[in-house]
Specification:
By secondary structure, this protein is of the alpha/beta class. Helix content is about 35%, strand content about 20%. The protein is globular. It binds 5-O-phosphono-beta-D-ribofuranosylamine. The site of 5-O-phosphono-beta-D-ribofuranosylamine has 14 residues, from helix 1, strand 5 and helix 6.
């Protein structure tokens, strides 16, 4: 009696930069907005990533995988995820491509967040302020973050959620990014919680025979 149970859902978070989404996910877990979860590993390819400090404060094991080929990095990630019992990977500003072996090592897949609508404003090189510049240059009225399942190409996997954020007259890439980031921080934990609740196999749905081949 009285012994606290270890949270069941172990997450492995991948970052390359600022780490504000990592912080938002950590906060959401502590506030029980992502129930029954904990971060079992922080992975980064960037030794100066801001998230490393927060991980140390939270006793989250951090792994710096720099100066290696992407193939070796992905193999190392699989080993770490297996060792820590990670069930879901979370890309949070991770700039490297995760391989199929990483995705397959996570029973619930690897999620990613992108700060603009996909697929239109995604793909190789579409990160940081480049994304917001492309949105503004295109003249669209709406941007906003998109959460999707990673596959082996940049920003291409199944879309799980999107929150529209208006592009305002006079927006610069920096202004737009700053308005979208807090929306990311609210959206990502919700989608992570939803995916954990759904589990690896959504309930089978009976399809009407009229749409079957
Ligand atoms: C976010 O805008 C996210 O959508 C994109 O990279 C940025 C990461 O920001 N994939 P941070 O490191 O979480 O602050």
């Amino acid at each position: 009696m009285g012994a606290e149970r270890e949270p069941r859902h172990v997450l492995g978070v991948l970052v390359s930069g600022g780490g504000s989404n990592f912080r938002a996910i950590d906060e959401a877990i502590r506030e029980d907005r992502i129930p029954n979860a904990r971060i079992g590993a922080l992975i980064t390819d960037n030794p100066t990533a801001g998230a490393i400090k927060l991980a140390a404060e939270r006793d989250i094991p951090a792994f710096i995988l720099s100066n290696m080929s992407n193939q070796d990095r992905n193999a190392a990630i699989v080993d770490i995820f297996r060792d820590k019992g990670v069930v879901m990977g979370i890309g949070a500003g991770y700039l490297k491509l995760v391989g199929g072996e990483v995705i397959n090592s996570c029973p619930l897949g690897v999620l990613n967040i992108h700060p603009a609508p996909l697929p239109r404003f995604g793909g190789k090189g579409m990160h940081g302020l480049n994304v917001h510049k492309a949105v503004i240059d295109s003249g669209v009225r709406w941007s906003g973050p998109t959460v999707h399942l990673m596959d082996e190409a940049f920003d291409r996997g199944q879309i799980l959620a999107h929150r529209p954020v208006p592009v305002q007259r006079g927006d610069t890439p920096k202004k737009l990014a700053a308005r979208i980031l807090p929306v990311e921080h609210a959206l990502y934990p919700q989608v992570i919680a939803q995916q954990l609740a759904i589990g690896p196999h959504p309930e089978l749905v009976e399809l009407p025979s009229s749409i079957l081949p």
